[in-house]
Structure formats: C-alpha cells, structure tokens
Amino acid sequence: MSFLLLQVVSFRKRTVVFGIAAYFLLSAVFAAPVSAAPRDDSPILGDWCLQDGKTAADVDDAYLRSAQKRRNERLKTLKATYPKIVFTKHFDIGGSHYAYTEAQSDAQAERNFVRGSALCLLELGDDGEYREKTLLSDLNGVIRDPAVTFDGKRILFAWKKSDRLDDYHLYDYDVADGRVRQLTFGNGYADYEPCPLPNGDIVFNSTRCVQVVDCWLTEVSNLYRCDRDGRFLRRLSFDQVHTNHPSLMDDGRILYTRWDYNDRGQIFPQGLFQMNADGTRQTEFYGNNSWFPTTLMHARGIPDDNGKVIAIFSGHHNRQYGKVGIVDTSQGRQENSGTRLIAPVRETKADRVDSWGQKGDRFSHPYPINGREFLISYNPGNTDLPPLGPDATEKEKRDRRDREHTLRTPFGLYWFNDRGERELLAYDAKISCNQPVPLAARRPVQMRDSLPDPSNEFGTFTMQDVYFGPGMEGVERGTARTLRVIALDFRSVGIGKNANGGPAGGAMVSTPVSISHGTWDVKIPLGDVPIHEDGSASFVVPAKTPVYFQILDENGHCIQTMRSWATLQPGETFSCIGCHEDKNIAAPPSGISMATRKGAQRLKPFYGEARGFSFAREIQPILDKHCIECHHDAQKEPPYRFAKIGAAGNKPFADFEAAKDKPILRTASPWHYTTETPAQNWMKPEYFETARRLPLSKGAFGNAPSGKPNTDWSTPDLWIWGTVELPEDWQPQPLILQCFHDEEIDLFVNGKKVFSESGHTPKYEHIYLEARETASFRGGTNFLAAHIRQTGGGQGVDLGLWSVKAGGLALPGENETSGKTLAAFSLKGDPVLDRHAKRYWSQSYLNLTNSQKPKPHEPFTGRQTPVVNWINVQEGPSMLPPYKAGATRSRLMKMLDPNLAVGGRPHRDVRLSREELDKLAAWIDLLVPYCGDYLEANAWDDKELQKFAYYEKKRADMKEMDRENVLRLVAHHQDGASATESRETAVSNNAYRNLALNPDAVDVVQDQSPKFYPAASSNSVCRGAAEFAASNGIDGKTANRGHGSNFPSWGPDRNVKDLWWKVEFGKPVHTDRVVIRIRADFPHDTYWKECTIECSNGFKKRINLKKTAEPQEFLFPPQRIEWLKLCEFVPETDGWAALSEVEVYGIDAVSREYVAPGTEGL
To answer: Each residue of 1052-1073: pLDDT tens digit?
Structure first.
C-alpha cells in the first residue's frame, strides 16, 4: 500500500515509532490482522482514535485508509508552505506565575529549571511525511525559544547550559553547516525569547534591568535589542514587571505581553502591547483595562488578515499554556469585545478567573499558517479525574485544582484549524514538544526604525483633549486645571514584606515603600503643566523613564489617575486624544489645539528638584509645625480608628444612619428589569420608553444579604431602571446611597455615571455622594439605570437614596475651629519598627493611614478612612470613575483647606501654605507613600544591606553598558567606526565552557609550577612516552577507539599505587560538571570502573565508570576550586587502562560581596 509510512524518531537513546505505518509494520511483524488493537508506540493512530471516539475494536483497514486520506488533505497547505519546521523539546515552561522562567543563576528566590532539552527539525520526506531530526541536544541544560531569521539561514534560540554556572543567553545555529555561535554573554543575566528583525537585529527579553516583581521576589525581564552578532545591546522597555513574547507583525510593529499593575491589582492586567522596533510608540494593543483574558501570551500576527492576532488565552498563577483564540482589535479592545476562542470556535465569555484556561485541553505557542490553520503545541489534558462529590472538603477541592492544573503527559506538536480539527506531527513520550516555527525565509516587512539620539534626554507628550474618553466622563469642562507627571522607580531587590487585598485579589509586597494597601512603588513627582481651555496639554518628560499622569482640579486634587505608565525614547513625540480614550473611536474634529499652537512646555517642578516622595521629608515637617502641639499623645487612638469605609468609601454604618434625613428612594422599591443585553443607549433618559415595557418587580434582586430576595436573578447580567421625583427647586447636594451589590455595579442618573464599584458587599453599605457627584440629579423626574454583573458565588442588588442632615457626617473634632487645646492622638515622627516590612514607619504615618497590627505577631495593616481615603492598590483593572478616591474624598483636606472647610475656617484655625496643602493632597493621591527610595527607613541587617548593594551595582553596571553601547552604535552608523568591545561583550571569554581545554598543553614537571594554564600532571606516564602524557587528557582530541599516536591519552604504568591525574587552572574557577572519555580500545584495554573526583576546596565525589567509548558525565553542586584531581582508581580487570579526555565545565570565579541563595559553595 503506497500510503504506508514509517517515521522513527530517536531522542535520548529511545525510539518512538509514529503513524499509521507503525501500525501496519507491527501487524506484519506479529502476523496480526489489521483490525488488531493499535499499539502504544503509534501516537498518530492513538490521536486519531481519541479524536474520533474510537476504541481498538473500531480500528480496521477502512478506518485507517479514511484517516490517512483525511490527514493528507488536512496537511496539504502546511506541506506546500512549510516543508521544514523547527521546534524544541523541554519542560513545560512557567512557575508560580507564567513569566517566572528566567532561572537566573543568582536569583533572589524562585527559580524554575528542569534540565534536558533539544533543538529539533521536522523535515518533509520524499514519502510525503515529516521526519524528525535532532539538531542540538543538551541533557543538562535547556534550549528554548527558537526563531528563524528572515533569510531562513539561521535559527536563533536561548540556551542555559548549567543550573548555577550559566544563564540563558542568545545563540544562533547556522542551518547550512550546523555551527553554533553564542551572541550574548554575562553571568547573572538571562537573555531569552529572541525576535529577529528584517535587518538582522534581534529584539529579546532580558533580566538586565535588574528588578524584582513588586508582588514577589522573582527577577523581572524587559525588552532589549542587539545586532545579529550580539553587539550594541541596549534597553527598549522600562517597565514595572515582565514584558514577554515579542513578535513582529506584518506592518512592522512589535507585539508583546506586558504585565501592568501600577496602582491596581496584579493578577489580571496582562494584556498585549505594541511598539516600533526602536522602542517608540509603546502603547496598548489589547486588554490593559480588562479582567478578561487574564493573560494574553504567545501572540503572533496572522499573515494578510487585517491585523488579527492568534494568541494563548491564559491565567496568572500557572504555566505557559491555556486556550487558543483570535484577537481582533477592529471589534473592540477590552474584555471579550475583540476576542474569540477557536479550536473549536465557541462563545467567549468575559470570565474573571486567576488561573484561567488550565482545565481540559491546553495549548501553547501557536504559529499561524493562514487565517484558518496553525501549528501549535497541544495536550488533550487530564480526562481521567472522577467528579468530586457534593460533600467534598476544601482540601479535596484544592487538591483537585492542583491536579487539574498539572499535566501528567507531554505536549505534542500539531497542525490545527480553527474548527478544532488536528493532526499530530511530533510526539515524545517523555518530554514535551514545544514552540514550532517554520524554517523558511520570510518576506521582509517595513520597520518603523530610527537611530537612538544620545544627545537628547527628553521626549514630548501631546494630549488633544483630556475630557475626551470615559476616564473623565461626567466631569464638566473647566474643572481640570493641571496635569501632573509622576515617574516610577522600581525595586532591584526583595527585602521585607507586607500585604494588600481588595476587589482584584491580594498580594505579598516585597521591599514595601508604604503600609499595606498603599503604593507599590517609589513615586517621583516630576512636576505639572497647565491644561488649556480646550482640554489640551503638551509637555516634555525625561526619556527612558516610566511616567504616569494625574488630572488635577483647582485645589490640586486628583480627578483621575492613569494607573499604568508610558515611556518615551529620546526625541520621541507621542500624541494621544484624551483620557483613556478608546483607540477605535476617532476624536471629533477640533482643529489645531491650543497646546499645539503654544508648543511643548517644560514641567513646573513640584516644589524643588525631582525626588522620590518621602513622608518624612515632605509631610512630617508640616505636622511638626502645625499639629503636634495638640497631637502628641501616643496612647490615644484616632477617632476614625474603627470608621469603616463603605463600598466606595466614607463613614461608619451608625454614623450614616444618624446622618440620614429624608428618603428619596427606599430600598425594596420596584424596578423595571431585564437579563437580556439592551441597546447601547440603555442608560440614557430616552431609553426609558423602552424600559417601561419591561417587567416591573421589587428589589432586592438575586440573593439578598438577609432573607429571600423579592425577585429571583441567577444570570450573569442584570439591568434595572427606575425613577426618582425631586422638587423643582432642587440644587446639587450630598446624598447617601444605601446599596447592596454582588458583584460589579454601574449606576447612572439621567445618563451620567454617578457610582461604579467592583467586587461585592456582604450586606447593605452606605456611600456618601459629594454634591458634584449628584450634579446629574435635577428637579422633576430623574431616570436611574444600573447594570450589575455577576461572575460567581452569590449575587444580588438593591438601592436606596437619602438626603443628608446638616453636619450629620462630621467626625469628632472635624469642624472644631477653636477651643481648649486637648492632647490628641500622636502625629509625631517617632519611629515604629515593622519587623515584617523591615521598615521604621513613623507614628504619625501609622495613625494617618489607620494602620494597626491585627495581632501582635502580624505586620501593620493600613486601611482607608473618611479622613485619608486613597485608591486601594487592589482595585480591579477596569477604568475607575473620576473622583473614585484620593484627596477629593479625604476629609483631612476639607478640615485643613480654607477653600473647602465649613465656613471657610480650617480645623482649629490651622493655616497651611499652598505648598503644604499641595504636598498633603499629593501624598494621598500618590497612594500614601512613606519612602522616597528603597533604602529609606530600612530595618535591614548587614547581609541585607550587602544584598541591596550587590543588585544595585548590577543595575548600575547595566545602565552604564546601555549608555556605552548606544554611543558605539551611533558612531558605527554615522562615522563607520568599528564596533569596539564593550564591557558586556568582554565577558564572552567567561562563558560556560570546558575550563580544562588546552590544545598546547605540556606535562608539568614534578614538583614544579606550570608555566601555562590549564596544565595537567600525574604521578605516572607509561614508559614516559608522549602519547601517554598527562597533558593528552586536556588537548581536545577525543578519538578513543584505537591505540597509537592517532589516539593520544593519559596512560599510566600498570599497578601504580596511589595513582592520580590532575588539572590545574592557574586561577579560581567555578565548576559543576566533569565529562570523562576513557580509552576504549577493547579488548586491548581494560578500564577503571571507579575513581574519585577530588577538588582543591576539599570536595570529593566517588564516581562509577562504564565500559563505553561514549562520553560519561558527572554532575555535582557548584564548587569554587583551583585544581581538580582524579584518584583512587579501581580497574575492572587486571590490565592497562587510560583516559582519552577529561573536560571540566564551568566559568572563571568572580569576587562576590553577596552570596545569592543556592550559591553558598561558590
């Protein structure tokens, strides 16, 4: 039969027989009928049966013919387009978070490294089937991230050869001759995920930024660029945490995943970003304000498909796999608006799940062939777990989740189409097949590229209209006065910790610079710039600096904050339309803006040189000057100590009850409702004619906080409509919103959003609405509309509105303007040790942030209060409404600012300057930072100080390397200057290598020091002959299957007592591996079956040798040594034995002031 095929793949000395031919071959060998059960070593046949729901009894000749015909048809386009496919074999990449894959040799904490890997090739044979070939294998290291250059002549990849003595670096493989070349160097830095550019340059990921994540202790990777030879290595992105998976789209944009959580929760915002190849135009591509997908990874542009992208939809706390889908930004850019799950095509719900996509079948690393077909790594998942019973314990549920998220079989390499039809291309029963990339030349794309300008240290932002977009929805023109620019400074080291929690989840915070729930990072206010009457602004900022923006009102209070960041390259100009505007919506024509006509402005400094905002430096002097005369009693509690923030913030439940005046809308009122998605204008007054035709029923809906709901609701979404009548002479005034919501709610009044909150409330809460927030109410009939969204657990909603009694919400002493001076809670700067955070907070800071220890052994926990109400860093990724929290919602500012205080008189008639008021407001709006840098107020021991200094020096070294390389790049392009060696490339001589190799070595004379290193010596050489000299063991000649001068070896005389062979390096080195080739001229030779590896530091390892001509490898913990000896030989039989070659792998030792965990022996 002409269609019978046989594919045999060899890897690690094991053979796997693929495909239908294996079935027929085995049938013939065992004289079995064709209907016999398929054998375990026929994975293609097994996958056919799995797809088709067949059992062994169902497999007959007709089925095999039909399945092979179907396979040929399915693979027709692939075979015609890509006859060669590169892929890797390695462990399933990931860790406790999908991006923790660097396994840096001097990592501060988590490392994920499983040795054993290969770079492989599938090549279409004359018989029409793909055959596998191993291009490069490493049993002790990991090869990953293959990428083919545009000319198809080289394969780029990352390779880490040793756990502790090497790091991932970039290499290339010459397809024509198989030569491998290392491109980047330097221990303590991981370079990986290369993305080749048409001009030969490479964009890649690297830990050279020297940062750790805010929410753990793991290294951060950002995007870098170098040329085809690894020269001119320089940084492109300057991001808080990981950027991953860069790929080049057809239009020249670099697409990548960016983890992004400035001033918000860390679990969900891992969307797609885009930039030019020179690092300019870094901006959102999809999902930076989305709960869903939790993570978009492994994204690649689909060729000739209008900018659509194929990607893996995945989670946060999981490895790098999930479901496969399409991202189409023409349909939307947030949540599920522009996403579609495929294989098969199905409904795509906007879920809110941390470890999303980790059940059932799993995918990773798609490569699009066209708009319908793609290569991918795939695993059918765990299908053998019985269902849990209704009485399962929480432990059983956790164990089940762990098992569901852990695959017990490797991934295979597949062809898929969007309908979910598939064909297996490569499979290894012991290790996953990953990362398929066609080995083919590609049509070059037009890059948007430029040369760096080292003479320019700035870039320019231009904003057309800050009022345009949902970020400023409902804010009247003229309210926004200035735009503040804040730079972010990220941590290099993890020392100490506290925690936070909120609607988006919870986290540990490493090296905290604020109390829990405060800012993640050091904030540096750079200054502000006026916003023109038309809402425009144009301003200059430092280049290569992550910055974010805040819109301020006339009091210097934040109306809206960015909760992300942007970075410009030197000389770059970046224009945006408005505040969080939808990129798919064009701004209304407005002509040339006032900011454009005036030109970019320099920032007005924030009361001095730019500096990290330090509570001790900026706020404590204000308190010392104005407050501590009264506020000095350390034994007294603040009156707001137990004042609970409601769903959106403000007062204790009892205070609200006492402050209520007249009901405007009672709870359990009737509402029109629907669970079907209404028209887009559902919140507008004109929609109420339609809403009135919907069912009418009383709240609460769903699951009320107590008792039974009046109206059942069990669907994911609910929309409700109602009306409120107000007197014709109504004027904007504060109101109390009484609300129960589970989960997310958006409330509109007369088409304007007045309240929005994520998460859920376990019972009715009270929310104080400022007069400006109730400005959309009017005399007469008011139209209320709300959307409630549910993702899991209980659900429900009910609303009520009350007017407020005059002065009914004042805290004790809040409106005091005079009177007898009484000792109050302390606002002094006395230091208080937080052993967990390893910080000394001041007593004043702890009291203003309402920080307490829940238990004596626990860390301090800060909570927002009506007095100081900042945005919680665990708010969700969705855009927050204006005035969500901050100085505008903090009564401290109303107590101290005469413009806001009752009667114009501040608390106890304390008069603060404008500078002092601005600093207090900024402190709250920056999310209550304490430290202006990561060293401030530390409670670290000497070892921790050494750790900090070590990683700070690493960071400084890389920053200087970046500066030098940019200068060299510019000189090379402008003047034709040769690329002189930089400090980074200079370390190429210290790559992980065979330290013992010396082709010119000569034997060391007994009792004399060597003249050249490495040098070999021994206490015996057979007959003193050169062909048996000790130096032959390090000459690089590995031929060992014969004897004579063509097979040099170290061969001692027979029956020598205390025999030894030694290699000296002439300097300290680090080693973790020895490879020995015995002379294998059997039966002429015997061999040593045992010996001891002995090192200069006292380390010893007894090893067993085998009778083989193949190299024999021995691993041990990294050792710092100056020589290595083989001794205590035990021959297998009486006779003559020799060693042909001894290889000692490692690196030159380097001096270290700090010892990373796991490297104590070095």
So the answer is: 999 899 999 999 999 999 999 9
| Mean pLDDT score, 208-220 | 97
CATH T-level topology, domain 78-438: Neuraminidase (2.120.10)
Distance, CA of 1047 to CA of 1043 (rounded, Å): 5
488-to-491, 516, 519, 730 alpha-carbon distances in Å? 10, 18, 11, 45
- Note the pTM of the prediction, 2 decimals: 0.88
Segments of the chain assigned to CATH 2.120.10.30: 78-438
In CATH, the architecture of 653-804 is Sandwich (2.60)
**SS3 label, residue 623:** helix
Confidence class of residue 653 from pLDDT cuts 50, 70 and 90?
A: very low
Q: What is the pLDDT of residue 30?
A: 27
| Band of residue 1079 on the pLDDT scale cut at 50, 70, 90 | very high
Sort strands 1139-1148 and 1060-1078 into parallel, antiparallel or unpaired. antiparallel
Decide if 19 contacts 68 (C-beta within 8 A): no
DSSP for 263-318 reads TS-SSS-EEEEEE-TTS-S-EEEE-TT-SSSSEEEEEEEPTTSTT-EEEEEE-SSS
pLDDT (mean) for 714-725: 94
How far, in Å, CA of 81 to CA of 368, rounded?
Answer: 12
Give pLDDT, residue 370. Answer: 97
Residue ranges of the chain assigned to CATH 2.60.120.260: 653-804, 992-1148
Question: Which region, left, alpha or beta, applies to residue 1030 given φ > 0 means left and ψ of -120 to 50 means alpha?
Answer: alpha
pLDDT band at 35 (very low <50, low <70, confident <90, very high): very low
Q: In this structure, which CATH number among 3.30.420.60, 2.60.120.10, 2.60.120.260, 2.60.40.10 belongs to the domain 992-1148? A: 2.60.120.260
Q: What does the alpha-carbon distance between residue 1072 and residue 1117 come to, in Å, rounded to a whole number?
A: 6
Conformation bin of residue 1098: beta by default, left when phi > 0, alpha when psi is -120 to 50: left
